[in-house]
Amino acid sequence: MFILRRTSAVASRFKIFSRCEGATAVEFAILLPVVMLILAGLIDFGWGFYWKHTVTNASRAGARYGVQANYPSGVRTPYDVTAITNLVTTNYGAGLTVAVDPVAGPVAGAFRSVTVTKTMEYFMVGILQSWGVPVPTTISNKTTMTME
Fold first, then answer.
1. How many other CB atoms sit within 10 Å of the CB of residue 143?
2. Which is it for strands 69-70 and 77-78: parallel, antiparallel or unpaired?
3. Beta carbons within 8 Å of 34's beta carbon, 6+ residues apart
């Protein structure tokens, strides 16, 4: 048994809007590149933020290690450049470049500076270059401490 329903005049008047089967696919195709661009930008920003903190902590740890006194033979000697470089690259990442300023001498009050640099490659290279951002970007931090 079939039941026939009557449609009102109001419903038939708006029937032209019910034929929008492909509208969702078109909207998705338009918005997908924008959403992917925002997502890639967030990933790049987070990656850069991570490396900025890592470089800062690495230079601070290297400078702190460099100004501590080393007493292997009872004589006050500062740690050498190789020991500081090994400490930073082992604990904070092999892709870091370490530059240690020579110490003025093994006396209290002498300064030692450690500069740590990281060259960061971005995920969105082409877009960033077209906006004038230099790619790759160098993240650097210099820490200076006095000998104990």
1. 19
2. antiparallel
3. none
Q: What is the pLDDT of residues 125-134, one digit of tens each?
A: 667 677 776 6
pTM of the predicted structure, to 2 decimals: 0.71
User: Which residues, in sequence order, are CB contacts of 122 under 8 Å at separation 6+?
Assistant: 44, 47, 48, 128, 133, 135, 136, 137
**Cα–Cα distance for residue pair 12/110, rounded to 1 Å:** 89
Residues 16-42 have pLDDT tens digits of: 555 666 788 888 899 998 998 888 888
What's the distance, CA 120 to chain centroid? 8
Radius of gyration of the chain (CA): 31
Average pLDDT over residues 86-98: 90
d(CA 61, CA 50): 16
